[in-house]
Amino acid sequence: MEVHDSGQLADSHQGLRRPELTGTRGRGLWMARQLCDHVHVWTDSAGTHVRQSVYRTSAQRFNSAARPLSA
Length: 71
Prior knowledge:
alpha+beta
């Protein structure tokens, strides 16, 4: 699955650190990284892009020929 928006990502490590329990933002990318096998985030002149992949079985995570499922 791939998601785009026109915003610019300010923190290049967004979603790698657990969000503050008392915070009201910053959970989406962290949750995606916990639930998905692969999350790629990048920013360019068009905005921010997030590509997520979930593999069918845990064995496929290590198979470079595995095909990711679409959400």
